[in-house]
Amino acid sequence: SEKQAEKAVHQKKEQSKTKCRKARRRHINLIAEFNHRQRKNIWLETHIWHAKRFHMVKKWGYCLGNSPTEKSYRACYRAMTKHCLLQDLSYYCCLELKGKETELLKQLARICSIDTGLTFQEASCLSGRFEGSLNLYRADRYPEDMLGPVTFIWKPRDGSENRQLWIWVHPALKQDILRELKAIFQCSEPEEACITEPVTTSIQEEKQVEVVMRLGNKRKKEDKEGEKAVPVKKIIGDGTRDPFQSYSWIARTTGVAISDRSMEILRYRLIGPLSNSVLTETLKAASVQTV
């Protein structure tokens, strides 16, 4: 019996050593931990990758990679000049406009000027083939009261007079530009279907975090897939918006709707001569089936 007891203890020790230190220290509920840790500063989808390799800074309500911990400047320069370098620009805010094309162009003409270059009405951009960039001003105030630079993309026409426009702005400029857009389109009423839910950490998640603190080194038994499971980060809003605020507004007179799509649409920038090749190999065209 003593030999069997010693054998059982020995097997238990061997079994506990099979898991690496990272696995043994893993949080019981990683999703709850991630959401708990990004209450004040939102993480991008690539946060974990950057946090292991970059010095992180807290700016504009986000936690962003500022400078690499290793001297990888030569590697980045080589990728930009000869291969492909990817940057995560998802912290840029996306404002979506929906409505009749004539109404959109009529009001948008008030916050930009043809004297500075192209406008929202540029033919190549209006068709949806190219992205445009311009400076925005307060309504009817050009050349004074500049709001800041933006980029924009029109959704290609589908035969309808209704169009869809995405305007990308820096998070530091988002509130001012959003306020001006809501003013010129008179979008003051929140859309009932688009009221955001309070996205603070739930009571259940709080209890899970407290349980983890009490358990100490005790770990929850995992199934065979547990070690390979990757937690899904829940988007809890963006760093430029109070989670209790609405994120979509509509003008009852014109039907124009403005939606704040920040952190809902990810944005990456590819730099280098092989960027097109990388995209071609990565993205596969879907087969569209018509009924």
From TrEMBL:
Residues 4-99 form the Pop1 N-terminal domain. InterPro entries: Pop1, Pop1_N. One of its GO terms (biological process) is tRNA 5'-leader removal. It comes from the Eukaryota. It comes from Tychaedon coryphoeus. This is POP1 protein. One of its GO terms (cellular component) is nucleolar ribonuclease P complex.
